[in-house]
Structure formats: structure tokens, C-alpha cells
Amino acid sequence: MHRTPVHPFHLEHGAKMVDFAGWEMPLTYRIELEEGGAYGGVHAEHKQVRESGGFFDVSHMGRVSIKGRHARRLVEKLVSRRISDMEPKQCRYALVLNQDGGVKDDVLVYRLADDDFLLVVNAANREKLLGHFEVVKESIDGAVVKIEDRTFKTAMVAIQGPNVMEVVSKFSKEIPSLKRYRFTEKNLFVMKLIVSRTGYTGEDGVEVILPAGSVKMALNLLMKDLGKPGEATVKPAGLGARDTLRLEAGMALYGHELGEDIPALASGLGFAMTIDKDEDERGEPYVGMEAVKRLRDAGGPERTLVGLFVEGKRTARPHCPVVTTAGDEIGEVTSGCVSPTLERCIAMAYVHRDHAAEGTALRVRTEKGELEAAIAPMPFYKPGK
What we know:
By secondary structure, the protein is of the alpha+beta class. It has helices at about 5-10, 40-50, 70-80, 125-140, 165-170, 215-220, 240-250, 290-295, and strands spanning about 1-5, 15-20, 25-30, 30, 40, 55, 60-65, 90-95, 105-115, 115-120, 145-150, 155-160, 185-190, 190-195, 205-210, 235, 305-310, 320-325, 330-340, 345-350, 360-365, 370-375. The strands form 5 sheets. The protein has a 6-stranded mixed β-sheet with strand order 13-14-15-12-6-16. Strands 17-20-19-18-21-22 form a 6-stranded antiparallel beta barrel. The protein has a 5-stranded antiparallel β-sheet with strand order 8-9-10-7-11, with helices on one face. The chain is globular. The model has no long low-confidence stretch (mean pLDDT about 95).
């Protein structure tokens, strides 16, 4: 398994390490407190992010540089969202599709300059996408563009929570003034950082990309209050809390809500698709666009992604069938958990569009019997201002 540059930090703070997409990553932490007891576990780490601030190692995410005279044109062909009108220092969430309109990955596109882009991709899809990027590059005659995998040369961390900007303001006055989905490049001592106001928890915060060799120095600066973890504004959080946080926020996860066999149009991510991008004078038809158009013109996908409130204490697990009260199977669960914030079971599922109205009573079949459920609005959780 690969190890991120933050790996020693995880071990120092009692992390339970697991294999995630070929990377050894922290699932949860256990930090002994000076006053007795310990901090850690999915519930505590989740609450820490919602109430104050959490620190995540997301270095397993792929970071791919695309630069050169035809970089913009290549990125336009790769992703589902218009790129030509992005400004430098702007980020955009987008999808990479296959020819059938299914999702190869969901990505963040950073525009550093007119012909200089950085794509942040999911760990499990990095190698697949690198090959796909090269194939699409070859479709551009005489393409002058360099594709470089910078995953192992850099690290990436996320700091999320309502009190995070107060902590960040100790290092920079500029970063707290960033708009959402904007970023800045900062020189901090000998480190060059890319700091974006983005995240995957539903909370405010930043994601930081930095040289792999600078991680120890950066952690000493950014996480210095971890010396007394019981009093820290920002504490570490692992993959377990990251999943419950994103589910509360209604954010799709590749391999659950997104996949190559799931039509992109069914995912509720219409904002991330410029379906008629080729009609713009600088637009480029992206891979899968024609399939998306055909499905749209045919009336759209039969199933759509919805939220569920599930009654009782048992959680709905991925692939559990969703049925009507009459017992007709109409879909399946993609993700489910007990929401630490709402203190009730929630889930996401694909169901037939005729049964997707908010409040519709449904059932989830499990090995131990059926669970009562109802269509719920997403996101399940919205942060206070």
C-alpha cells in the first residue's frame, strides 16, 4: 500500500489504519487526554468537525497537472462543465464521463493560469484517468500539452469546520476572504501552498496542496494546538467521519452514487454538466456529451438519486432494495448511516422517478426484515451562517 506524507502524524495520534484504494489511511483516531479519557471515533470526530474544526489527510486523492498551449482545449474535452470562462484562481466541480454518459470520476478543476490546470481526482480512479487523459489528448491534432501526475510529489490536507477560518487567519488575512471555490497560491517560509476554499463535509474550510517534503513543517505550524488535544480548535478526523459528514451534506461518493454504469443525468448533478457545451464558440464537445443529450431528449433516466429518512436504529446498507409499500421493487440504497448530527438514520438511494416525490413512504429490505422509510430533502444538513 501507498503511504501519504502525513502517515507519521496518523501513527503519533493513535490512528486505526485501513486500506483505502491502495493507500494506508486513518479510519479513526484515539488520542489520550490529559484530563483523562480519550478523543476519537467516528461520532466524536464527526461532532468535532460540525462544532469546531477537523483536520483530514486527503493526500490519497490524485493531483494531475495539465499545462501547455492546448491545455484548455484538452480539459474542455475531458470534463462535463465549461472551462473557458473560468478565471485564474478559480475551482470548478465537474464530471469525467465515458462514451455512454456514465461517470468515470468526479473531479475538481483548478485554473492556475490561462493554459495551466490542476485536476484533483479520486484515489481509486487516478491510474484509469491518466490513461484516459492520454487517449483524449491524442484526439487533438498536434496537441502541445503536458500531463503530469503530481500525486506523489505533493500532499493534500483539508481543514473543515465553523471555527477553521479563525485558525487560518493566524497565518493569512487573505485566505478567510476567499470566495467559495476560489484559491490562492501562498509562499509560507520555504513552502509553496495552493489553498482553496473547498471541501467535502458541508462545512466551511480550506483544502491545502503542498510539497510532500514540507508536510512536517506545515503540520507544526497549522496544528500546533494539538499538543493539548482536549482543548484544540482543530482535531484530526478520519475516513469514518468523512463519510458520515459527506452523507449528511448530500454529497455523492464515487462507487456509491456515481459510477460508469450510472447515467450522469440521474445523479442530481446537473449543475456540473454543460450539456450543450459545443454550441459555445470556444466550447469543445466532451466525451459522453452526445450520450447525455440522447438520454435527456428521450425523457431522462428512469431512476433518480434521492434522500431517505429511515425509521428505527438499523441503518440501510448499500445495495439494499428499496420497495413501495405494496412491495414493488423500485430501486436500491447507495449509502446509509446513523447521522450523528440529526440522531436518526439517513440514506441515499436511486429510485424510479415516479416514486421520488418528497414524503413518499417506502421500505428498505434488509436481511433482518424491512425498514420503514420516506423520501427526504437533501442535503440532510445545512450549516448555520
